[in-house]
């Protein structure tokens, strides 16, 4: 059986099981399925933008735009929870340390009611001089633990950084995310490749790491392109 075939069969199994569990949990009537997506990541998931000399979370972020697009297609049956934490790395989500510290990942994902979990890390790994190998190990562990709990993990590469030296190091982290996605047979939203291919993408950055709202909107469109078919499959309970 090919990797693609194994992934399709696995997705079919968890799609049916996950939506059934959610319906039972929330008392949803038969035939009215719901899908919950949890978005984990750093400040670019949280939605920080810098303007007028200050940086802070903005309502116009990729997760909000994604929620709006999914609502336009599927209505209130789909919800996306933004669990991004500024300044954090994948290793901190795994260990339950750093800002917003809490449960270790194995415990946290076991308690989650989401069917889909997304991960967007890489920039702080560069800023904190983490090695690509450490990042690879952390993302692999996050994906494996999520899948063990019947969740569908979706990996996302970071948006590029205008500083060429830092961006070269970020590209090494991006390569690790792509590697984990390929090895673990999970969906990938390759924001780094998409944005790098946009003309003058640097003008859509608010500083050295955080997009402006117009780039967050474009990121959300890429998220939607990957997530919408998965959500649709879960909602109709088909393979």
From TrEMBL:
<dbReference type="InterPro" id="IPR013830">
    <property type="entry name" value="SGNH_hydro"/>
</dbReference>
<dbReference type="Pfam" id="PF13472">
    <property type="entry name" value="Lipase_GDSL_2"/>
</dbReference>
<dbReference type="InterPro" id="IPR051532">
    <property type="entry name" value="Ester_Hydrolysis_Enzymes"/>
</dbReference>
<dbReference type="InterPro" id="IPR036514">
    <property type="entry name" value="SGNH_hydro_sf"/>
</dbReference>
<feature type="signal peptide">
    <location>
        <begin position="1"/>
        <end position="20"/>
    </location>
</feature>
<feature type="domain" description="SGNH hydrolase-type esterase">
    <location>
        <begin position="39"/>
        <end position="218"/>
    </location>
</feature>
<dbReference type="GO" id="GO:0004622">
    <property type="term" value="F:phosphatidylcholine lysophospholipase activity"/>
</dbReference>
<keyword id="KW-0732">Signal</keyword>
<protein>
    <submittedName>
        <fullName>Lysophospholipase L1</fullName>
    </submittedName>
</protein>
């Amino acid at each position: 059986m090919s990797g693609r075939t194994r992934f399709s069969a696995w997705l079919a199994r968890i799609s049916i099981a996950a939506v059934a569990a959610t319906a039972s949990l929330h008392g949803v009537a038969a035939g009215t399925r719901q899908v919950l997506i949890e978005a984990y990541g750093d400040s670019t998931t949280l939605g920080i933008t810098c303007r007028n000399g200050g940086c802070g979370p903005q309502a116009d972020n990729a997760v909000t735009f994604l929620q709006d697009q999914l609502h336009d297609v599927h209505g209130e049956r789909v919800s996306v929870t933004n669990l991004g934490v500024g300044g954090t790395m994948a290793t901190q989500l795994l260990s339950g340390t750093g800002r917003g510290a809490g449960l270790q990942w194995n415990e946290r994902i076991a308690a989650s009611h989401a069917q889909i979990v997304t991960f967007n890390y890489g920039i702080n790994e560069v800023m904190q001089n983490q090695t690509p190998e450490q990042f690879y190990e952390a993302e692999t562990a996050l994906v494996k633990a999520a899948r063990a709990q019947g969740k569908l993990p979706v990996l996302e590469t970071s948006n590029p950084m205008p500083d060429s030296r830092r961006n070269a190091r970020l590209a090494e982290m991006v390569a690790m995310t792509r590697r984990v996605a390929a090895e673990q047979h999970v969906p990938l939203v390759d924001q780094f490749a998409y944005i790098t291919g946009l003309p003058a993408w640097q003008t859509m950055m608010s500083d050295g790491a955080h997009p402006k709202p117009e780039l967050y909107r474009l990121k959300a469109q890429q998220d939607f392109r990957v997530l919408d078919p998965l959500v649709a499959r879960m909602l109709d309970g088909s393979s």
